Amino acid sequence: MALLLFDLVLCALLLLLAGAAMLSRSLTQAVTLFIAFGVMMALAWARLKAPDLALAEAAIGAGLTGALCFTALVRYAKQPAYPQPALWRPLTFIGLVTALLLASLSQIPLQPSSAIPALVQQHLPQSGVSHPVTAVLLNFRAWDTLLELLVLLLALLGARQAPGDLPRYRGWSLSISWSRLLSPLLLLVSGYLLWRGAAAPGGAFQAGALLASGLVILRLNQQLSWLSWRHFWVRMLVLGGLLAFVLAGAVSLLLQDLGAVWLSWPQSIAGAVILIVESFATLAIAVTLTLLVVGEPKPEVADA
Amino acid sequence: MSVVALILLFSMLLGIWRVLKGPALLDRLLTIQLFGSTGVAILLVLSKVFALPALLDVALLLAILAAAAPAALVQRLRQQKQRSRQRTSL
Amino acid sequence: MTIMLMISWLLLALGLMFFLAGSIGLLRFPDSFSRLHAVTKADTLGLGLLVLGLSLQSSWREGLLMALIWLIVMASGAVSCQLLARFSDEQPSESATQQED
């Protein structure tokens, strides 16, 4: 009974926040509400007993997307006289998307087909990890993850074509020391999430997103000036995820007999390979996302 | 135990009214703080309700992000202000 | 065992009271700084009581993790309260003490 009410209130809150974020006139408020919406989505995934998705939603939906939106907001420097959009446009859009979603709803089976989870469970011992989601992401469907890393790299390269000229300002000493205090903790918890990924919800994307959010606040407080595209090692870190993945694929191809499949790890070293690939991927994701969010530092602007 | 989660969610709902209403920017920024602490509490309770210890990790992540967010956010907003001041002085 | 359970529920109820009190404060307090105070302080105490109540019903490892989470939330409440208040103090145009109309 209480759980049913909980669901109802959760749905109402989600709709309320989404509506308010879209219709709000102040962009700052819209972005804050959007972050709140991300947190609510994470709660919704938690309610649906999907901790993997809840982790990803909290790290990416609430954390990084919020940071991206705020960055966009800052570049949109003048406090905008944001024009109230004609209401029919968003409403038409919502109507169209809703119709599409409803149309696709009939295609989703009510009960997920039991064949695929059973297959995953059956082959889990060969994957080198004990958490089915990680097994799918980094072993059975490693191709998808490899291509996701490529997409991230392409996004960064695209964003670099439009260089930002965001000047840096010195933060308050409170926020500087707070970010210094927080960063070892962030590093620790990212490592924990990465390590847990083998046996429980967690993994490269969540750990990378968390690490990125730590790097972002450090950078905003004028630390870490080495973190720039100009440095060779930073570029190598960005490429590292992809390189480790491809190299692992090539090595596993050599180790196995003829007829082996690209990106399928030999069972004996699968766990180690996955951990190595994930570590590099975490670093690459963290650095890429940070560079995407904060852009290049511009040397020395006096504090106003 | 799920009653606890329900009451927490309800208290969040109460808070949202103020956030939507404003009037100052500070009131709106309070959303992050409110959602940080109450969201973490709900996750902790849910992990007990469903006996899913993994939700504790989600709560940990949310707590750290909520701790990092205000620092980043305030810096960003100050940059924005200084930038628009520069624009107007040019 | 039952006494532990009773204490745990008592703590949970107390924690909930603080959460509700924080939200009511957010609604009813007259100016932004009081509201900031309501959210960052009452909720933090509420979370502490909740964590205490929950850890009486769970293993020591979960209890430790929850205690860590509480420490983080407590520290972040204190710091972000300061940061937000300072920021709003800097803001000339949109005064924080502005009354609602």
From TrEMBL, chain A:
Listed InterPro entries: CPA3_antiporter_subunitB (IPR050622), MnhB (IPR007182), MrpA_C/MbhD (IPR025383)
Main subcellular location of this protein, as a coarse class: membrane
Lineage: Bacteria, Pseudomonadati, Pseudomonadota, Gammaproteobacteria, Alteromonadales
Pfam families, per the entry: MbhD (PF13244), MnhB (PF04039)
Residue intervals of the Na+/H+ antiporter MnhB subunit-related protein domain: 179-289
Bilayer-spanning residue ranges: 54-74, 86-105, 140-159, 171-195, 201-220, 232-256, 268-294
Keyword Transmembrane belongs to the record: yes
CC annotations in GO: plasma membrane
The family this protein is said to belong to: Belongs to the CPA3 antiporters (TC 2.A.63) subunit B family.
Record's keyword terms, sorted: Cell membrane, Membrane, Transmembrane, Transmembrane helix
Domain MrpA C-terminal/MbhD: residue ranges: 12-75
Membrane topology: Multi-pass membrane protein
Protein name listed in UniProt: Na(+) H(+) antiporter subunit A, Na(+) H(+) antiporter subunit B
UniProtKB/TrEMBL annotation, chain B:
One Pfam family of this chain: MrpF_PhaF
Keywords: Cell membrane, Membrane, Transmembrane, Transmembrane helix, Transport
Source organism, top-level taxon: Bacteria
GO terms, molecular function: sodium:proton antiporter activity
Coiled coil region boundaries: none
Principal location listed in the UniProt entry: membrane
InterPro entries reported for this sequence: MrpF/PhaF-like
Annotated transmembrane regions: 45-74
Subcellular location: Cell membrane
One GO cellular component, as annotated: plasma membrane
Bilayer topology annotation: Multi-pass membrane protein
Family designation: Belongs to the CPA3 antiporters (TC 2.A.63) subunit F family.
PANTHER family per the UniProt record, alphabetical: NA(+)/H(+) ANTIPORTER SUBUNIT F1, NA(+)_H(+) ANTIPORTER SUBUNIT F
Protein name listed in UniProt: Multiple resistance and pH regulation protein F
Organism name: Alishewanella agri BL06
From TrEMBL, chain C:
Domain of life: Bacteria
Any Pfam family matching the protein: PhaG_MnhG_YufB
InterPro entries: PhaG_MnhG_YufB
Keywords: Membrane, Transmembrane, Transmembrane helix
TM region(s), chain numbering: 6-27, 64-85
GO molecular function: sodium:proton antiporter activity
Cytoplasm in keyword set: no
Protein name, entry field: Monovalent cation/proton antiporter subunit MnhG/PhaG
Organism of derivation: Alishewanella agri BL06
